[in-house]
Amino acid sequence: MPCYQIQRFSLQFTVDNRDYLIEALSNMTIFYEDISEELIRVDYGRLNINLKNETIDVTGMSQWQAEQLINKIKRRYSAVVLEEVTRKNKWL
To answer: CB 50: neighbour CB atoms within 10 A?
Structure first.
C-alpha cells in the first residue's frame, strides 16, 4: 500500500483585464512574476499558481488551500474592477 495519495482538481478563474489582476495581486502583497502577456506565476508559500490564458494550474497544496487562495484573489480582483468602474462613471 503506498504512503502517498495523488489528488487532482481543477479551478476556473476568468480574467477579462490582465492589468486589474496584476493590481489585485499587488494589493494583496502576494509575490508574482509577470512572465509574458499570457502567463503570470504566483508563489504563495508552498503553493504555485500559473495563470495562463484564463486557465489556472495549481500545484503544491491541498485543494482546500488552493481554493481559499484563489477565492481571495477573485475577491480582490472583483474589488479592483468595481473601483475602476466607480471611478470611470464618477459614482462617488
So the answer is: 15
